[in-house]
Write a structure and sequence with these properties.
Blueprint (H helix, E strand, L loop, with lengths): L9 E5 L4 H12 L3 E6 L2 H15 L3 E5 L7 H11 L6 E4 L14 H29 L3 E5 L12 H20 L6 E6 L7 H5 L12 H12 L7 E3 L2 H12 L2 H11 L3
Parallel strand pairs: 1-2, 1-4, 2-3, 4-5, 5-6, 6-7
Length: 263
């Protein structure tokens, strides 16, 4: 029997218009959870919402929002409160990356990445955490990355943002340990999504590319353990390489990562 509630709860999923976000929505809806789908592209959200309601008989609410805006988390919570929608599970998935030397990156793109990958993750979590911990039936999930486990030359800002996500989530897991809320950071390696279309190159691919369904299934299984770990690395090969990077001398780990990412 699952130790996390699905049926009778509502999950808010950011970055839900495609990729991992859409897969999180499908797997939660398949288990009876209502879902709130958040992203910028309303047409995609509406199409996914119609699919989920048709296939699983749940309520799927599309919400178009730019989470990179200051205060977006609080505005989103107030909007859902006004509609009588209470959230038990938050899946903080929205984010993007880039590839190339730091000095060649567009400063505006760097700022947007930090705001979405870091600022919005903290902002949305802070806005909804009082509801999540008060209910205690669901989960707080954040999507980090194997990039969080060592510096990532050629993806310097992206890797740093994911290190923040991992650290924040593990700390929140400890702070909320008596609430009943399950808190988990999942760190996949490369996943076959639109991520690399946004990055603009496959040079950012290191290791085997996973299917979104495999990453989300690994996340669910970690959440459903009797004792949910504060973080999990999806995929055996990714776990081995991440642990090796942690054990290796820092200079060596940096050199290996730089070569792998074609920095």
């Amino acid at each position: 029997m699952s130790t996390i509630a699905y049926r009778g709860t509502c999950a808010l999923i950011t970055g839900a218009s495609s990729g991992l976000g859409a897969e999180f929505a499908r797997q939660w809806a398949a288990r009876g959870a209502d879902v709130v789908l958040v992203a910028r592209r309303l047409d995609r959200l509406e199409s996914l919402a119609a699919e989920l309601e048709r296939d699983h008989g749940v309520t799927a609410t599309p919400v178009a929002a730019d989470l990179s805006r200051h205060g977006a988390g609080q505005a989103l919570r107030e909007q859902l409160d006004s509609r009588g929608i209470r959230i038990q599970t938050l899946i903080n998935n929205a984010g993007f990356g880039s590839h190339g030397a730091f000095l060649e990156q567009d400063p505006d793109q760097i700022a947007r990445m930090i705001q979405l990958n870091v600022g919005a993750v903290a902002d949305v979590a802070r806005a909804f955490l009082p509801h999540l911990t008060a209910d205690g039936r669901g989960a707080l999930v954040t999507v980090a990355s194997t990039a969080a486990y060592q510096p990532t030359p050629a993806m310097a800002v992206y890797g740093a943002t994911k290190a923040f996500v991992l650290s924040l989530t593990e700390a929140l897991a400890y702070e909320t340990r008596d609430s009943g809320l399950r808190v988990l950071a999942v760190s996949p390696g490369p996943v076959e999504t639109e991520f690399f279309d946004v990055v603009g190159t496959r040079d950012a691919v290191v290791g085997n590319v996973a299917a979104p369904a495999d990453v989300v299934t690994a996340t669910r299984r970690a959440l459903e353990r009797h004792r949910t770990p504060p973080s999990v690395i999806a995929g055996l090969g990714n776990r081995v390489s991440a642990r090796a990077a942690q054990l290796a001398p820092r200079r060596l780990a940096l050199r290996v990562a730089g070569r792998a990412l074609k920095a």
